[in-house]
C-alpha cells in the first residue's frame, strides 16, 4: 500500500518511525516549512523532515495545499492512503479525495471529546479521568470524521501534559499500524461521531497560564499540570523587579485547610511547600521557577526568597 505521511513535531515523527520499522511503503512525506528556532533564529527542519531525510524519502513543504500545483504533486505520488499526524495544515476536500482510501488522522483524544488544537492539555484541564488516541477517517470538518479505532489510557492524579503526551506517543503508532494492517475492515466498521457530545479543545495562549487565585484550588492545580510544559502556569509578585516579577509554577498540590485571608495570600511557608489561599481551598506550591533561574523546590525558594514567599505576602 502506497502511503503518504504528513506531520511535523516529534509526536508525528514517532508514527513515521513506526511505519518505517514495519516496512510500510512510504512514498512521500509532507511537513511544515523550516521555521526559525534557537538563539540564532536560523530556519530549522521539523522532526519529521529530519527523519524523512535520514531514510532518503521525498520531502514536500508547501505553505498550503490549496494550489492546483501542490495538489497535482500529491496526486503524482498515487497514494493509497495519506496518514496525517499533527501536520499543522488544514486539508482541502480536493486533497482528501486524492488517496484511493482517503486520509487517516491520529488524534490525541477520545473523539468526539476534545476536537481541535489542544486535546491533551484540555483533558487534564477539565479533570478527565481518561484519554487516548483515535484513528479517524478525515472529513472537511474539524476532527469530525468517523472513528476507525481507539486506544484508551488512564489520566493519573499527577499527570502533566508532558507525561500524557508520552503515553499517547506510545499508543498512537501501535494503533495506526493495527488499522493499516486491515484498513478495509476498520473502514467498513467506522463509527460516526456524535456532534451532540463533542467538545472543543481551544488552542492555549500564554495569557491563559496566568493564575487566577480567586478560582478553586482544585482547578488551579489542574491548570498547573495541564499547562506544563507550555505555557506554564504563572503568577506575579510586586516584591520582585518590575519586568522580572513573573514566577512559573511547576508543581502544586491540594492541602486541607481554610483561611479568611484574600485569594493569593501566602499563609504558610515551610520546606514542604508554600501555601496560598485561593477562591476555594488552599494550594501548596512545591516547585517554582524564579525569573532567570532553574526550577527549584519549595525548600530552596523559602530559604532564598523570603521577600516573595513569607506568610502574609501576596501573589498576583
Describe the fold and architecture:
By secondary structure, this protein is an alpha/beta fold. 28% of the residues lie in helices and 27% in strands. The protein contains ten helices and 17 strands. The strands form four sheets. The protein has a seven-stranded mixed sheet with strand order 5-2-1-6-7-9-10. Strands 12, 13, 14, 15, 16 and 17 form a six-stranded antiparallel sheet that branches. Strand 3 and strand 4 form a beta hairpin. Helix 1 (10-21) runs parallel beside helix 6. The N and C termini lie far apart (57 Å).
Unreliable residue stretches: none
Strand order of the largest sheet: 5-2-1-6-7-9-10
Tally the helices: what do you get?
10
Major sheet, described briefly? 7 strands, mixed
From the alpha carbons, calculate the radius of gyration and give it in angstroms. 23 Å
Give the overall shape: elongated
Beta-sheet strand percentage?
25-35%
Total beta-strand segments? 17
Q: Which structural class should the secondary elements be placed in?
A: alpha/beta
Topology order in helix (H) and strand (E) letters:
EHEEEHEHEHEEHEEHHEHEEEEEEHH
* Helix share bin: 25-40%
- Kindly state the mean pLDDT as a whole number? 95
Q: Roughly how many Å apart are the termini?
A: 57 Å
Amino acid at each position: 500500500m502506497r502511503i503518504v505521511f504528513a506531520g511535523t513535531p516529534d509526536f508525528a515523527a514517532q508514527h513515521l518511525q513506526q511505519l518505517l520499522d514495519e516496512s510500510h511503503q512510504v512514498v512521500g512525506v509532507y511537513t511544515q516549512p523550516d521555521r526559525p528556532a534557537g538563539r540564532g533564529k536560523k530556519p530549522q527542519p521539523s522532526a519529521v523532515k529530519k527523519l524523512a531525510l535520514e531514510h532518503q524519502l521525498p520531502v514536500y513543504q508547501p505553505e498550503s495545499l490549496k494550489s492546483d500545483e501542490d495538489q497535482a504533486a500529491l496526486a503524482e505520488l498515487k497514494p493509497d492512503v495519506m496518514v496525517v499526524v499533527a501536520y499543522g495544515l488544514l486539508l482541502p476536500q480536493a486533497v482528501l479525495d486524492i488517496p484511493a482510501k482517503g486520509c487517516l488522522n491520529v488524534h490525541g483524544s477520545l473523539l468526539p471529546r476534545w476536537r481541535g488544537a489542544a486535546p491533551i492539555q484540555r483533558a487534564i484541564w477539565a479533570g478527565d479521568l481518561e484519554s487516548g488516541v483515535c484513528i479517524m477517517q478525515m472529513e472537511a470538518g474539524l476532527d469530525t470524521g468517523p472513528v476507525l479505532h481507539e486506544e484508551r489510557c488512564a489520566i493519573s492524579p499527577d499527570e502533566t501534559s508532558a507525561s500524557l503526551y508520552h503515553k499517547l506517543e506510545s499508543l498512537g503508532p501501535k494503533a495506526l499500524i493495527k488499522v493499516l494492517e486491515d484498513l478495509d475492515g476498520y473502514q467498513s466498521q467506522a463509527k460516526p461521531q456524535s456532534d451532540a457530545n463533542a467538545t472543543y479543545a481551544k488552542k492555549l495562549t500564554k495569557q491563559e497560564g496566568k493564575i487566577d487565585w480567586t478560582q478553586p484550588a482544585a482547578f488551579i492545580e489542574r491548570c498547573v499540570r495541564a499547562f506544563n510544559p507550555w505555557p506554564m502556569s504563572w503568577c506575579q509578585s510586586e516584591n520582585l523587579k518590575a519586568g522580572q516579577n513573573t514566577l512559573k509554577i511547576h508543581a502544586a498540590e491540594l492541602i486541607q485547610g481554610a483561611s479568611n485571608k484574600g485569594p493569593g495570600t501566602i499563609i504558610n511557608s515551610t520546606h514542604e511547600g508554600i501555601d496560598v489561599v485561593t477562591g476555594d481551598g488552599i494550594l501548596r506550591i512545591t516547585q517554582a521557577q524564579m525569573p532567570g533561574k532553574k526550577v527549584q523546590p519549595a525548600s530552596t525558594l523559602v530559604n532564598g526568597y523570603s521577600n516573595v514567599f513569607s506568610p502574609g505576602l501576596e501573589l498576583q
